[in-house]
Amino acid sequence: MRRRPGLSEEVAGHLRHLIMSGTIRPGEFIRMDETAVELEVSVTPVREALLTLRGEGMVNLVPHRGYVVADLTRQDVADIFWLQSVLAVELAVRTASTITSAELDRLADLNEALQDALAAGRVSEIVSAEFEFHRVHNRIANGDKLAWFLLNATRYTPQELYANDPQWGQVAYDSHLKLIDAYRRGDRDEVVEQTRRQFTDGAERLMRHLESIGLWSDDADNAAAPG
């Protein structure tokens, strides 16, 4: 099969989603041949993806047996969303100092596009609309490096899991509305509050989901409230 640029990154993204959503669990092996067949790719990009995930601490290599999913604790989830929130808040504060009326109108249009996707229930469009809103928003801050770090941190967010949750969609839409309004009024405290709200909500929803599928059998295991 012809190798295409970025294919290993796509495979890594697919596997991250499966791990973070609990579809494949700690202790389970990821078989390269089976994954390649499932994704209709050669084994090479799967191997490269697993090497990437090993470097991220998401899988471990067991000699002579292959790659196994690493532990994922409540504290891990809390840490991931805490880091995302810290980066996002800094970008939002910077945005508050530079955003124009035209840019606010653009964000409002993108938020309505998200609402349309939510109403239609089309998961891929919901994921795209949410991504586009934040992509445009984060570019306004003129902090390209910071935005890049945030983008990399959000790779561990199982977007499709959220896009299938209507309640999450309404929280995202409402938070965007309030964020835009806070920018218009120059209310930086509310800007920070609405930015943090999305990550706190995301962490809580993911923890509830992972608990509901029995990922954590020991309730005392690294219990942590999102920061």
From TrEMBL:
- Domain named HTH gntR-type is located at 5-72
Q: What is the lineage of its organism?
A: Bacteria, Bacillati, Actinomycetota, Actinomycetes, Mycobacteriales
SUPFAM superfamilies with a match to the protein in the record: GntR ligand-binding domain-like (SSF48008), Winged helix' DNA-binding domain (SSF46785)
Instruction: Report the source organism.
Output: Williamsia marianensis
Q: Which keywords belong to this entry?
A: DNA-binding, Transcription, Transcription regulation
Query: Is-annotated flag, keyword Membrane?
Result: no
Query: PROSITE patterns, alphabetically?
Result: HTH_GNTR
Q: What is this protein called?
A: GntR family transcriptional regulator
